[in-house]
ABC transporter permease
Amino acid sequence: MAESTIDLSVRTPEPAPAEQEQSPDRAARLRAGARRRLRSWLRQPGLVLAVLVLLTVLAWALAPGLFAPRDPLRADPAHIFEPPGPGAWFGTDYLGRDLYSRVVHGASLSLRAPVVAVALGLVSGTTVGLLAGALGGWVDALLMRAVDVLLAIPGILVSLAVVTALGFGTVHVAVAVGLASLPGFARITRAQVLRVLGEPYVEAATASGVRRPVVLLTHVLPNVRGPVLSLAALELGTAVLAVAALGFLGFGAQPPTPEWGSMVSEGRDYLGDYWWFTTLPGLTLALVTLSVNRIARSVTHRRTH
């Protein structure tokens, strides 16, 4: 009777065909997804135009000398109130300064202040909402009642009060607009914190002995950032308009520094005879605000779907 033998040698299994082709398939799926997203964007001409406008204005802010080599502060009394034309695309003002150069060079201040304002509102509002939602009790009641008081006052009045206390200047305008946007960030952060704190993984982390600050930073905060960042994108357009409004009232950059809000204010006395003095800087401001809002709505829609 022949003895049966058992082969105990270890053989390395051959990779399955699906595993061999996993990496190329994944790359193909990524390329197909990128093509779908690109076609989706191209089917929205308004969004494409908004992106182009914002990229152009960002280029103005980063390198104004490349787009407008003329000095925005140089007066030329021989060419005052020239209408828009080949020599001066936006015309000239009452001192003969080139309005196109002033608009381009003013993009830096006009965009920097809203970005700083939204960043300030985002950080301060998120901190207040996180503390209120996480601590609860009298801390929650005290913080949210203060937020409710700020919400009861129009944002422009809050900004005016703050900038009046701090003084004139672009930095103070950015701080004022940022503090006015704090209540919105605080409320949405608190609501998201209360939602996340009830999730099983947060309760499991707390029950396993993880300290509360660690739970907030590693489990809660990353899961509330989506709605908060969407709100920040929406607030940016409002901040651009609010900074320009304070500049229009004379609280922002002081003459002769070019800034969109102050430029619109300078031309209001000449609107009847020299329409381009106010209209063209105002149209630039409106176009940038609409573009920022259009992109923000698109980002928010993609996050919610």
